[in-house]
Structure formats: structure tokens, C-alpha cells
Amino acid sequence: MDKEYDFGRGQRGAVIASPGKTRITIMLDDDIIEAFRSRADASGRGYQTMINEALRQALDPESAPVTLRGLRKVLDERLPA
Fold first, then answer.
1. pLDDT at 31 (0 to 100)
2. Sorting pLDDT into bands at 50, 70 and 90, what band is 52?
3. Percent of the chain whose predicted confidence (pLDDT) is above 70
4. Which of 52, 5, 57, 10 is nearest to 28 (CA)?
5. What is the distance between the alpha carbons of residues 67 and 41, in angstroms, rounded to a whole number?
6. Phi-psi region of 13 (alpha: psi -120 to 50; beta: other; left: phi over 0)
């Protein structure tokens, strides 16, 4: 390497920071990753973005899908016996 380059003050890390995002390492099952990748390919979106959206929905109880158990609970509470 040329001696004209001085990396003495160099730092490791991303060149451009992503505001509001944090890089982590997470272990996910292969089938989960493949499912998100195929859905991402079909929709033309990024699989990491889709995983992020799925995690957001899981954290928000208002956006959770209605389950049969949940529907029965509401009906039992609201309908007279």
C-alpha cells in the first residue's frame, strides 16, 4: 500500500449513519428468513423492512389480527347467556 495514505485516525463503523436505526445481530430461523425474502422479491420491497413492519405489528395490540379465541371472548362478554 502506498505510504501516502494515513489511516492512523481512521474509525470503524458505517460511513453514513442511519438515523433512527441501530445495527444488531439477531439469529432467526432459516425458514423465516426465506419466507420474508420470497415475499420481498414478490413485492419488490426489502425483506428487512418487512421484518421490521411485522415486529411493529406484533407490538401494537390494535393492529393484531382477530383470532377465534379473541372473538369468542368478546362475544361472550357482550351477548347475554
1. 98
2. very high
3. 96
4. 52
5. 28
6. left
Q: 39 vs 25, 61, 66, CA distance in Å?
A: 22, 24, 22
| Ramachandran angles phi, psi of 45, nearest 5° | -115, 170
Which residue, chain included where needed, has cell 390494535? 62
CA dihedral 41, 45, 48, 49 (to 10 degrees): -150
pLDDT at 70 over 90: no
pLDDT tens figures, 13-26: 777 878 888 888 99
Q: How far apart are CA 63 and CA 57, in angstroms?
A: 6
Q: CA 34, CA 40: separation in Å to the nearest integer?
A: 10
- Which residue carries 393484531 as its cell? 64
